[in-house]
Every structure is written in structure tokens, then in C-alpha cells.
Design goal:
7-stranded parallel beta sheet; globular; about 900 residues; 5 domains; about 20% strand; Rossmann fold; GD_AH_second; alpha/beta; lyase activity; Archaeosine Trna-guanine Transglycosylase, Chain: A, domain 4
């Protein structure tokens, strides 16, 4: 027998369901209001059970808001579960669950504004004596809480460059350090649909008060260029950049450009390092409010605490910025209970409507927002998630302004910014708007950090705080165990002032960070048969959509192409039962939030040789997907790409590293591997949150790789017919080069190997290449979907939904490609982290300008160029040559969202 107070929490008086504060097994007896109730089923921590009788069809409530309807008559003790939540828990192998759900989600009917119910009150009262903190005064506006030199990539094409450039300044005396802003956007050939958001956010980064100097880096031909950012700032009335800054366009070899860019930065370092903190008003604090890895207690402890501390900042004249539009859908009445004026209320609702429309164009609704981790931790649907998220806005605090993504802050007070629920994408917009400190609330223990703005992480329960104390800053769970909210607010506010004044946050001590900007979306309006209608219906099912739109798998059978009898020898490796160019140990993050940790662990594993002689190298593949993005076709493509790398012929050992609260967690991929006919026990599994933080998960990964006693790969002679090669051409190329690439493909296929081409690539658009490769200039269509493994070797064409180079390279690798041979002109390419990218050119201007980055120069007629290409492929496959882009550190990895994916 246990008392209700020991095991349950009622969000507000009047609610008819409670939240379990710990796991309750079936048969548990609970004393509730003088009576004893017996739980017929297991109720996990954070999940809900009935506390008063509810009849069929009646509302189930938390914070006096309906989130579901009873599917049958329910009595006290009954487990509240919807079809989605029951499926999520069942997938985790929990025992003692009911056979059928007990509730259905509350429909998300469009919110109708009742103007008479609005309250236009005053903002919270100001303190008599506003406080101060030690910050860095800025000529262009508020003081900074940090003093960073920022290396800003205007597009994904420069992300590898700024990352490597920043690495070369590790440890330099430069204030709080030199940091890169590397991201995935703006890398396609056409104008992206998120261009305005990109320019606003990147421009806002340059003016953020935590930036003491900034180098803005682009590449020739970028749509999102330094010039575009400069023009955007001028045309939209932004102030000029007052800190040391420069614009740098890559125009030569990678090493040459690193040296030239470094020469621009070096004079700034002593200037930045000499700057001192001064006493500045707390009014200069601009707080970004975020939540991630939320659970059922987020709305009870961490979010209310973040809201109360924000109210205290506002009392001192500062600003708090709420975001994540789709995570307030269903909470409109709460948000608009206290608002500045009618215009602000209407703009808030217009923002939500616009977000719903954009998501609807892609065939999705906001109901798809909660991640698998959210649901597993008790947030059954978007209504529960939204009400809990809205608790970052205290009832007594007034909503003052509504702004667009990355729009400059219009004043002080409490502000809402439009953004997706994807944490990192949302944070980037807030930083672009001018926030200089981040409050990040989390239930599962999200470890997210931003490069030049400190993050304070509030965790919802003390048990989770103790498990992840090295990664968390605030134990909001103390509220659940007796500490008053007032005392906890005062304690946390003191920490905020100290961190704003220079004390390092847990994330800064850990030393990792990520940037992701609101990702491009492909649909710009409703499409018949795809888009969600205004009444929430989709006119057709996913399976009925065109193959290209949903990126559905194809039969994987090759085209009939031409072949040759030539054979180019190379030295390969006998690994287990196959002949391959290398044996890779792969650490694959299951979502964006574990990506940077995977990189750090892989680097340490490589240095310390955790896998011994069993592998030739360790690789991690950080990416932006797996959480905070829509499901459906986009998720299918993502899962297919991930499986492609796990099952790649070069992968000898593979471990999946989950963050712990994502949609595509470890259990998700276990089931996907089973569906693919693979044995999950072959793979390693680790969890940052589940294993207890960064140190603990690192030890787990080390132990797994060290648990094998595999023989070292054995060198064995072979030829290029053992390989799968992708052929690519970027920039203009001659007819002779087109024929040369066809000849290379003909040898590889003729000797038993496979060649993969992109459906959007320049090669397939060239009549001469098609004639030389396939014997006809007729169009050639896809044989495989993006990232799909093919059924038989030969000539293959991979469907490509866009033109971004890194997304193309990532798709190639997932198909089983072991090397990419690319002819380049007008510039060179970033390398893929897993698959070697070999670059050659026959263009004299490219050779003269970028020769240092080329692996070979192709001269002569088609036959001579083909021989040069085949020889360089053989040299790389035989490990006699490391491609220059790989050796220089110009590497990346990026997963497409296809035509129907969108941020949520």
C-alpha cells in the first residue's frame, strides 16, 4: 500500500487524471482520498491514471484542459493510454500493459478567438533597484554574456571549411574562443524556400551581443553568400556590424584558403582577448526559452521554474523569448489569457495558422510533433506537450510581442518567436533575434548546447538530475520533493547572474555544441493528393502518392549498360567473407542531438585504437535528422539511409548512439534491422541519457568495441570489379571527359562491379555520356530510391530529390557505394565522412586555381582520361592514397528530407 502523495502528482486541482511520479506495476494498491484503488495495469513514470470516475466519451484533463476522451467507462486506477502512447510503450517491451487503449486523442479543432475573454493587463511589476551582471558592452546594442570570435559559413558548402579553420585556432588566446557556425542550409543550386529565414538568422548571428568578431565565409556561386547577407541587413534597416569583421570567399585550394582566412582572423585575437567584463544592467539579458526531451513533469517543475526566472529577468528590464510554434498548438487559450493587445493576439494566431499550413502542404499535421521519447515519457499527444511547454509563460506574465523567425527583438518584456519544435532549429532563430543566454528545460536530459551562447539546462526530476548531473545545470525536480517554487526561483536566478557574468555552464564545461537552422522545405503551397485539407483530411494515402514524391523503393535491378573487358588491379582487404577496400568501425548517432558526441567518441576511439587491428579507421556520421522533423516519406528515407550505412560492405563493426528521447531511438532501429533481415545482436547500442551522461556512455562504447577479438583484415589482390563506385560531374565538362567517365563505368560493371549515378546529376543530362555508357542517348530513369541498396550489380541510377552535393554523397554511400569519383570544374567538393570522394579535372582553369585540392589531372583523349581516373580509383581503394579533401578535414555528412519532409 502506498499513499497517492508518494507516487502521484495532480497538475491542477479539478483534473481527473494524475501523473505517476514513479513506475507503478500492475496490482499496486494506492490510498486515494481515504479509499484504496488497485492499478490493473503497469503505469510508467510520467504516464497518467484516472483518479475519479470518467464515463465513455468524457474529457480527460490535465491543467483543466482536455487532452483525450475516454474510450470506455474508466474508474480510479485505470491506466490512461491512447493508441499512440500504448504503441510507443509496447515497442519498448514493457510488461503488464492493457491489450487496448483506454482513450483517444482530443481533436485539434481550429481555435476560435473570443475577444471578450482576453485580458490586457500590465506586465509584471519592475523591481525598485534593477540589478547588474558582468558583461561585455557592445556598441551596437545589449552587452554580451560571452566574447567569441565566430566563423560563419553562409551555406553548407563552407561548413567543412569553417569547422577546420576553427580547429586550427583551438586553445588560442581569444576571449571565450574561436567557434564555427557550420550548418546544413543553402547548399543547393537553386534559391531555397527558407532564404528569408536563412538571411535573417545568419545576419542576426553577426550582430549577436556574444560575438566579438566575425568572419563570414562563402564559396563562389553561393545563393546564400556574404554579399546577400550584407544586402539583407542594409535593406531591412539592421545596424552595421561594429565588431571586427570580414567577408571571405573561397577561391583557391583548401589549404591556401585556410591560410588566407586565418591571416584575417589573427589580428583580431589580441583585441578580443584584451576586452574585459564590466558591470552592465540585467536589462541586457535576452533569454531564449526552449524545451527538449520533454516529459510529463516538464509542465510541473522545469517549465514553470524557467518561466518564473524569466519573469524575474523581465522585472529587471530584460527580455524572454518563447518559441516552438507547433508546441503551442492546443495551448492557445493559456497563451492568450494575458496579452498586450488584440493585435498581438491575432498575430500569434496567424503565426500558428501559417505554421499549420506549411506543414499541411507536406501532408502532415501538428499531431506528429511529439517524438518517440516524448510519448514514452508521458506526453501522449501535442495537447499535453503544448500545455506543458506553455508553462514557460507564467500566468501573471503578459505576452508583449510576436515576431518571425530570426527577426530582431522589438523591445523588452515577453516575446513569442515563430519556429519549429525542432530544438536546435528553434534556438538558432532566437540567437539570430539577439538572445544572449538560453534556458533549456528537459525531462529526459537533453545535452544540447550552442557555440557562442551559453545554455542553462533545467531538468525536471531529481533522479534524472543525479543520473546526468555533469550535463545539467538546474535540478527543477527539487520542487517535486518539497522545495518551494519561490526558493527555487531565487536560487536559479542567482545562478543565471553568475553564468551571465562568466561562470561556465555545464554545456560549456563539456565542450560540445551544434547549429541547425530552420531547414528548407520543398512544397510552397497546397498540392492535390498530398496536402492536408483545412478540415484535417488528406485526400490520398501515402502509398497512393507518386513514387518520386514519397521516395518509394524501386526494384533495384540494373540498367542494361555497355561494358568492357579491361581490368585494373588493386590491393583490397579480405574481411570476414568479403573483399573490400577498408574495414570501418562506425558510430552512428540515431538523431541530431547525439551527433557531436559521436564525433568526439570516434576521435578518441581512433586515437586509442579501441577496436585494435580489426578495423582500418573509426567513423562517426553526425546529421540533423531523427527528431524534430516530420514522419512519413521523409522518415522512411532517413531510416533507409541509416540502415544503408549500418549494413554497408565496408562496415565491419557498428554501434548506434542514441540521445535517448528522439523519435528514432535505439529500439526503433532494432525493429528496422529485423525488418531488413539483419541480426540486431551484431550491433552495439549506447544511450547518452540512458547510460548516465557523456563519461558513462563513452565507457560503454569503449567496452563494446573492446569486447571483440577479430582477426586483422588480410591484404589480397583484386580488381575494381569488387567495388561499387559512384560517378559524378560538377561544373562544365568536355565531351571527351563525358566519354572517359562512361569508359570508367564500363570497366567497373564489366568486371562485376556496380556504378551508381544521380538522377539529377550532370552526367545523365549529357547525351554523349548516355550514348557511351548505355549505347543510346535515350533518357535513363532511376533504378533505386535515394539511399536504397540495389538488388543486383550493374549500372544504377539513384533518385535524387534535390541538388545539394552533401545530400547526394550521403545517398550514394547508403546504396553501398565505396568510392565517389567526381570530375570538378569551377571549384572542388567537400568529402563525405564515410565514403572517399576522389576529385579530378580536365578543365585548365580549375587545375590552375584549385590544383592543390585535386587528386588527379585528366589530360589527353577520352581513353587517356579514363586510364587516369581508373588508376586514381585503384590507388585510393588500395589505401596507397588518401583523397585530399579527406586529408585536409573538408568533410561532411547530410541527409535529405526529400520532397515531403518538414521541421516540426
Amino acid at each position: 500500500m502506498v499513499r497517492f502523495e508518494q507516487i502521484g502528482v495532480l497538475p491542477e486541482p479539478g483534473d481527473n487524471v494524475a501523473i505517476a511520479s514513479r513506475r507503478l506495476d500492475a496490482g499496486t494498491e494506492v490510498e486515494l482520498d481515504g479509499t484504496t484503488i488497485t492499478l490493473p495495469h503497469t503505469v510508467l513514470e510520467g504516464h497518467r491514471f484516472v483518479v475519479v470516475p470518467v464515463v465513455t466519451g468524457d474529457a480527460l484533463t490535465s491543467w483543466n484542459t482536455a487532452f483525450a476522451r475516454a474510450s470506455r467507462d474508466l474508474v480510479p486506477g485505470d491506466y490512461v493510454c491512447t493508441p499512440t502512447s500504448l504503441a510507443a510503450v509496447t515497442a519498448r517491451g514493457v510488461d503488464g500493459l492493457p491489450e487496448a487503449p483506454s482513450a483517444t486523442n482530443e481533436p485539434l479543432d481550429p481555435f476560435e478567438l473570443d475577444e471578450s475573454a482576453l485580458s490586457f493587463g500590465a506586465q509584471v511589476t519592475s523591481v525598485e533597484q534593477p540589478g547588474t551582471f558582468l558583461g561585455y558592452p557592445r556598441e551596437q546594442g545589449p552587452a554580451g554574456t560571452r566574447n567569441h570570435v565566430v566563423l560563419l559559413a553562409t551555406s553548407s558548402r563552407s561548413s567543412g571549411f569553417v569547422t577546420e579553420l576553427a580547429r586550427r585556432f583551438d586553445g588560442a588566446a581569444a576571449g571565450d574562443g574561436v567557434v564555427p557556425v557550420a550548418h546544413t542550409e543553402g547548399g543547393e543550386d537553386e534559391v531555397p524556400n527558407n532564404l528569408h529565414f536563412l538571411l535573417a538568422t545568419l545576419g542576426g548571428f553577426t550582430l549577436n551581443p556574444n560575438v566579438s568578431a566575425v568572419l563570414i565565409v562563402d564559396t563562389e556561386g553561393d545563393v546564400v553568400s556574404g554579399e546577400a547577407i550584407k544586402n539583407f541587413l542594409a535593406e531591412n534597416g539592421y545596424p552595421s556590424i561594429k565588431v571586427p569583421h570580414a567577408y571571405f570567399t573561397r577561391s583557391a585550394g583548401f589549404e591556401h584558403d585556410l591560410t588566407a582566412a586565418g591571416a584575417l582572423i589573427e589580428p583580431w585575437l589580441p583585441i578580443v582577448d584584451a576586452q574585459q567584463r564590466e558591470e552592465v544592467p540585467l536589462a541586457d539579458l535576452k533569454i531564449a526559452l526552449q524545451c527538449g526531451g520533454s516529459d510529463a513533469f516538464s509542465g510541473i517543475s522545469a517549465n514553470p521554474l524557467a518561466g518564473q526566472v524569466s519573469a524575474e529577468v523581465i522585472r529587471h528590464g530584460g527580455t524572454a523569448v518563447l518559441a516552438e510554434t507547433d508546441e503551442l498548438i492546443g495551448a492557445e487559450p493559456y497563451v492568450l489569457k494575458n496579452v498586450r493587445d488584440l493585435a498581438t493576439a491575432k498575430r500569434f494566431l496567424a503565426t500558428i495558422k501559417s505554421f499549420k499550413e506549411r506543414v499541411g502542404w507536406h501532408g502532415h499535421t501538428a499531431e506528429g510533433n511529439p517524438s518517440g521519447g516524448n510519448v514514452y515519457r508521458g506526453l501522449y499527444n501535442i495537447v499535453l506537450k503544448s500545455i506543458g511547454a506553455a508553462r514557460k509563460l507564467p500566468r501573471e506574465v503578459r505576452l508583449d510581442h510576436v515576431i518571425d523567425y530570426g527577426e530582431p527583438l522589438p523591445g523588452d518584456g515577453y516575446i513569442f518567436m515563430d519556429s519549429p519544435g525542432n530544438d536546435l532549429e528553434s534556438v538558432a532563430g532566437q540567437i539570430g533575434s539577439g538572445c544572449n543566454l538560453i534556458f533549456f528545460t528537459t525531462g529526459n536530459g537533453s545535452i544540447t548546447n550552442f557555440p557562442f551562447v551559453p545554455t542553462l539546462k533545467f531538468v525536471t526530476t531529481s533522479a534524472r538530475y543525479e543520473r546526468l548531473h555533469a550535463e545539467m545545470d538546474v535540478d527543477a525536480g527539487k520542487y517535486l520533493t518539497g522545495t518551494s517554487m519561490a526558493d527555487l526561483t531565487a536560487e536559479t536566478f542567482d545562478l543565471v547572474v553568475r553564468v551571465a557574468s562568466g561562470e561556465k555552464s555545464a554545456g560549456e564545461r563539456a565542450g560540445h555544441s551544434q547549429v541547425s537552422i530552420w531547414r528548407n522545405w520543398k512544397q510552397t503551397g497546397p498540392r492535390e493528393g498530398i496536402s492536408i485539407t483545412t478540415d484535417g483530411r488528406m485526400s490520398r494515402k501515402l502509398a497512393d502518392l507518386p513514387l518520386e514524391d514519397r521516395d518509394a523503393p524501386l526494384d533495384g535491378l540494373p540498367h542494361r549498360g555497355l561494358t568492357s573487358e579491361s581490368r585494373t588491379p588493386t590491393e583490397l582487404l579480405r574481411v570476414d567473407d568479403r573483399l573490400v577496400p577498408e574495414a570501418v568501425a562506425l558510430i552512428l548517432p540515431t538523431s541530431l542531438c547525439s551527433g557531436q558526441i559521436a564525433l568526439r567518441i570516434a576521435a578518441q576511439a581512433e586515437l586509442e585504437r579501441w577496436a585494435g587491428d580489426a578495423v582500418t579507421r573509426m567513423v562517426a556520421l553526425p546529421h540533423t535528422e531523427g527528431c524534430g522533423s516530420s514522419g512519413g516519406a521523409s522518415e522512411e528515407t532517413f531510416a533507409r539511409i541509416m540502415l544503408g550505412y549500418l549494413l554497408h560492405p565496408n562496415t565491419r563493426m557498428a554501434l548506434l548512439l542514441e540521445h535517448g528521447c528522439e523519435k528514432t531511438h535505439n529500439d526503433y532501429f532494432r525493429s528496422r534491422l529485423v525488418e531488413a533481415g539483419a541480426d540486431p545482436s551484431r550491433f552495439g547500442w549506447a544511450s547518452i541519457q540512458g547510460d548516465g551522461g557523456l563519461d558513462a556512455v563513452g565507457d560503454r562504447v569503449k567496452d563494446w568495441f573492446g569486447s571483440f577479438d577479430l582477426p586483422a583484415p588480410v591484404a589480397q589482390s583484386g580488381d575494381l570489379g569488387a567495388l561499387t563506385i559512384a560517378l559524378e560531374a560538377r561544373g562544365p565538362f568536355s565531351d571527351a571527359t563525358a566519354e572517359a567517365l562512361a569508359l570508367i563505368g564500363r570497366e567497373i560493371v564489366g568486371s562485376g562491379g556496380s556504378v551508381v549515378l544521380s538522377s539529377r546529376g550532370a552526367l545523365l543530362a549529357h547525351d554523349g555520356f548516355r550514348t557511351a555508357a548505355f549505347g543510346s542517348a535515350d533518357p535513363v530513369g532511376p533504378t533505386i530510391a535515394h539511399g536504397q541498396r540495389f538488388a543486383e550489380p550493374g549500372w544504377h541510377v539513384m533518385r535524387m530529390p534535390g541538388t545539394d552535393w552533401m545530400e547526394t554523397a550521403t545517398g550514394f554511400g547508403a546504396t553501398g557505394v565505396q568510392q565517389i569519383l567526381a570530375h570538378v570544374a569551377g571549384g572542388t567538393l567537400s568529402a563525405q565522412r564515410f565514403v572517399p570522394v576522389v576529385e579530378f579535372s580536365n578543365d585548365p582553369e580549375t587545375v590552375a586555381t584549385y590544383g592543390d585540392d585535386l587528386d588527379a589531372v585528366a589530360t589527353g583523349d577520352a581513353t587517356e582520361q579514363a586510364r587516369i581516373g581508373l588508376d586514381i580509383v585503384a590507388a585510393v581503394a588500395g589505401r596507397r592514397l588518401v583523397p585530399k579533401a579527406v586529408a585536409s578535414g573538408n568533410v561532411g555528412f547530410q541527409i535529405t528530407r526529400g520532397l515531403l519532409g518538414t521541421s516540426m
